[in-house]
Specification:
365 residues, OB fold (Dihydrolipoamide Acetyltransferase, E2P), six-stranded mixed β-sheet, alpha+beta, 9 helices, 24% helix, Rossmann fold
């Protein structure tokens, strides 16, 4: 059953969205800063009005520009949880959580019982009598989650809820959200920059760039075979875009030919395609190698960073401005090859390590 449908355009932000979410599903919205992720949440929550479009939640229309329907934010059955807890500073944790039930008309006793239930659910019963100024960042965010859920929302919106937390606190909150969302079959949309949030919490992923959804699917589909530059980078996969020029190769806009093997889905010659390969499959040479058929791309080293036990060598941007390729090598190789930013080298990958896929269709403007 479809829980959420958004088909809306906001001209002054250059945004146009068309997404659906099933009942009980969790959608992770990924994308670079300024891509339009929070704009999408604003359209759903009723904080932004589209120039044209429809937003429905279940069988209820929340926004319809054609008929003039605009349900106010407080009456949408939607709860929005942001990076900051935004608790009422003059209220205790219990009173903060009881606020929504009281606003719905429950008695003080009934609202108190609802608050106690959700405080237990987020492991915060001991914090009930504290005010926000007496809470740590992680504790305050737990109370904010309890307050959002006490409102009994049909849809939960989470705008990078772990972004402002210490790295030691975020895993516990992520585990808490996973339990609540999974065990109760909650429908939710979570905006995040963190791959772990998508892996731990989401059923589906939508990648947003320049105000449009450029890629969507199950978490496994998008992260295993990304077609957009942002999804490829967050998934740790190299991506090169170009035109299919033969049975086993594509050519990039700057003239590099890459050979590989077909992934699922045929890519006709002359159509747009992408080549995907893992950084671990890339060897780094100071001179072009000879021998068995390999792909060889001349690059300039942009930066070096630790990546587990390996060193990730990331090249400068490609000539078309897309993200540079990456190779994972040993620290010994970095020293032996004298790798450093600015060094000209060759990234080499065997054809059988490269998969070719049809490119995504451009978003509808």
């Amino acid at each position: 059953m479809r829980a959420l449908r958004v088909r809306a355009r906001l001209a002054h932000r250059g945004a146009a969205f068309d997404i659906e979410l099933g009942d009980g599903e969790v959608l992770a919205v990924l994308g670079p800063n300024g891509a339009g992720k929070s704009t999408l949440l604003g359209l759903i929550a009723g904080l932004l009005r589209p120039d044209e479009g429809v937003v429905t939640l279940g069988d209820r229309t929340l926004t319809d520009t054609a008929t003039g329907v605009v349900v106010p934010p407080h009456d949408r059955g939607v709860a929005l949880l942001s990076q900051q807890p935004l608790l009422f500073p003059h209220m205790t944790a219990r009173a903060n959580v009881a606020f929504a039930p009281r606003s719905r008309g429950l008695s003080r006793t009934e609202a108190g019982s609802v608050a106690e239930y959700w405080l237990r659910e987020v492991d915060a019963t001991a914090l009930a009598n504290r005010r926000p100024s007496q809470l740590s960042g992680g504790q305050a965010q737990r109370i904010a989650i309890a307050r959002a859920l006490a409102a009994q929302p049909r849809l939960l919106l989470l705008d990078e809820p772990m972004a402002a937390l210490d790295v030691a606190v975020a895993p516990a909150l992520r585990k808490l959200l996973r339990r609540i969302l999974r065990d109760e079959g909650r429908t939710a949309v979570i905006v995040t920059h963190d791959l772990l949030d998508a892996l731990a919490l989401a059923d589906r992923v939508a990648v947003v760039e320049a105000g449009h959804v450029v890629e969507s699917g199950t978490v496994r589909e998008v992260l295993a075979t990304p077609r957009s530059a942002f999804a490829a980078r967050i998934a740790g996969v190299n991506i090169l875009s170009g035109i299919r020029i033969g049975n086993d190769s594509l050519e990039t806009p700057w003239g590099v030919t890459v050979s590989g093997v077909d992934g699922p889905g045929a890519t006709p010659i002359g159509s747009s395609a992408v080549a995907l390969f893992r950084p671990a499959a890339v060897a780094v040479h100071t001179e072009p190698p000879h021998g068995s058929p390999r792909n060889c791309v001349a690059v300039t080293v942009g930066e070096l960073e630790l990546h587990g036990a390996a060193v990730r060598v990331r090249a400068e941007e490609n000539p078309d401005g897309s993200a540079g390729l990456a190779a994972d090598v040993t620290p010994a190789s970095v020293a032996e090859l004298d790798l450093a930013p600015g060094r000209r080298v060759f990234f080499v990958v065997k054809a059988q390590e490269v998969t070719l896929h049809p490119a995504l269709a451009p978003p509808v403007q």
